[in-house]
Amino acid sequence: MNTNSRIYLDNAATSWPKPTCVYDAVDHYQREVGAPSGRSGYREAVEANQIIQRARQGVARLIGAAEARQVVFTASGTDSLSMAIFGVLQQGDHVVTTVCEHNSVLRPLRALSDEGVISVSHVPCDGQGFVAPDEVRKAMRTETRLVAVVHGSNVTGAIQPVEEIGAMSREHGALLLVDAAQTLGHMPIDVERLPVDLLAAPAHKGLLGPLGTGVLYIRPTVETELKPLRLGGTGTQSESDVQPESLPDKYEPGNHNLPGLAGLAAATEFLQERGIELIQAHHAELVGQLLDGLKAVPGLAIHGPTGTSNRTSVVSFTLAGYDPQELAATLEASGGVQCRAGLHCAPLMHQALGTLEQGGAVRLSPGWATTDAQIERTVDLIAELAAVAP
Questions:
Q1: What pTM, to 2 d.p., does this model score?
Q2: What is the C-alpha to C-alpha distance for residues 108 and 255, in angstroms, rounded to an integer?
Q3: Distance separating alpha carbons of residues 308 and 245, to the nearest angstrom
Q4: Element (H, E) at 177
Q5: Residue 134: HSE in the Cβ half-sphere, 13 Å Cα cutoff
Q6: Does a cis peptide bond (omega within 30 degrees of 0) precede residue 298?
Q7: Number of other CB atoms surrounding residue 245 within 10 Å
Q8: Which of 54, 62, 223, 344 is 20–30 Å from 333 (CA)?
Q9: Up-side HSE of residue 322: CA atoms within 13 Å toward CB?
Q10: 256: closest CA among 2, 16, 118, 55?
Q11: pLDDT band for position 38 (cuts 50, 70, 90)
Q12: Does position 1 have pLDDT exceeding 80, yes or no?
């Protein structure tokens, strides 16, 4: 397909296009640097180390972390969540989570539960996908070790009250793990203000980095409670066969994904220059335009908040007469609109919304580069399809 006619509305899966500086940074590393970091002292190896430091410092600035070493790089948001969940939980622990979670949280918890290691409570949500803090409080037990909550739903877009939930967790002595896959890079996040202990996210969505990159923020002192899942060479303390205890080396054995981190370093600089607040405002404008247009389409149901407040740039809907997968395929075939249909790896969320049995929903997720004209064209196309629904 000609990319000029491509209306990409699947930014909740991965952002596209990336800023030009991201492509340039990846190409520069691959063509001009090509060396590992932390293993040698020649010029390109030093530059490779500087690339990693730029990326780490860039993410730390965006989330307000006091020290860059509190940011650990991973292979993906899923990898970050697994590191947090498997690294913290022990025999007999209890976890409070929600029905809004992605399988990247649900499946590790299910595996540990099936093995008899932990017990899990799933807190419900309301019809728009919001979780009430009091429901989290009621689910707490004396043995609750971890509260795991998604910041912004990848199905409804609903932003959860993590500040209140975190305050409860801290009162209770439990750690708070926040899945920021749909919010980091889309809205301001300050980990010094929020009572968050672990914050996991991919670096290829709102952060605008390449695929194969993820981040895990670890609040100071939490590293003493978080065991590493992977062990191996770090290029430091090589005289010892014991994994280093210092951050970030404790959690980053092996070679880094330097092409990806080169792109991420450039992306964080782009986001700093552009301003997260301006990006958030642009997303809100697009989502408002999208919601207003979809509400006027006969037979269409929006699943999630119907306003632009307390939501991220994810809009899911179903249309009478169409299977979600069929509708998504038709949108691309007839107008170049690319989106995601199905269960979005969040089966409990769709069960709560009543969309599980019908195969989920169609999800539209605009990004930093999406235009008003593209949203207008998408809404017009959906309205045309609704008019000829089977």
A1: 0.96
A2: 25
A3: 44
A4: strand 175-179
A5: 1
A6: no
A7: 11
A8: 344
A9: 27
A10: 55
A11: confident
A12: no
Q: How far is CA 110 from CA 85, 95, 281, 353, in A?
A: 11, 11, 37, 21
Residues with Cβ within 8 Å of 187's Cβ and at least 6 positions away in sequence, in order, are 152, 159, 276, 280, 312
SS3 state of residue 315: strand
Q: 258-299, pLDDT tens digit by residue?
A: 999 999 999 999 999 999 999 999 999 999 999 999 999 999
Confidence of residue 331 (pLDDT cuts 50, 70, 90): very high
How confident is the model at residue 89, as a pLDDT?
98
Q: Is 287 exposed, middle or buried (0-12, 13-18, 19+ CB in 10 A)?
A: buried
pLDDT of 39-65, one tens digit each? 788 999 999 999 999 999 999 999 999
Please tell me the predicted confidence (pLDDT) of residue 3.
Answer: 53
CA gap 15, 8 in Å, rounded: 9
Eight-class DSSP state of 203 = S
- Rounded distance, CA 344 to CA 350, Å? 9
**Hey, what's the torsion of the CAs at 237, 241, 245, 247, to 10 degrees?**
50
Give pLDDT tens digits for 333-366.
999 999 999 999 999 999 999 999 999 999 999 9
- Rounded Cα distance between 203 and 90, Å, is 28
Arithmetic mean of pLDDT over the chain: 96
Beta partners for residue 120, in sequence order? 95
What six digits make up the tokens of 227?
């065991």
Closest to 294 measured CA to CA, from 282, 309, 304: 304
The residues, ordered by sequence, that sit 6+ positions from 281 with a Cβ below 8 Å of its Cβ are none
- Evaluate the omega torsion of the peptide bond into residue 17 and state whether it is cis, within 30 degrees of 0: yes
Of 13, 5, 20, 94, nearest in space to 263 by CA: 20
- Which residue is it, tokens 């919010």? 183
Beta strand 300-302 with 93-98 is unpaired
User: What number of CA atoms fall less than 13 Å from residue 231's CA on the CB side?
Assistant: 8
Which residues contact residue 202 at a Cβ distance below 8 angstroms, ignoring those fewer than 6 apart?
Answer: 14, 76, 77, 78, 80, 181, 213, 214, 215
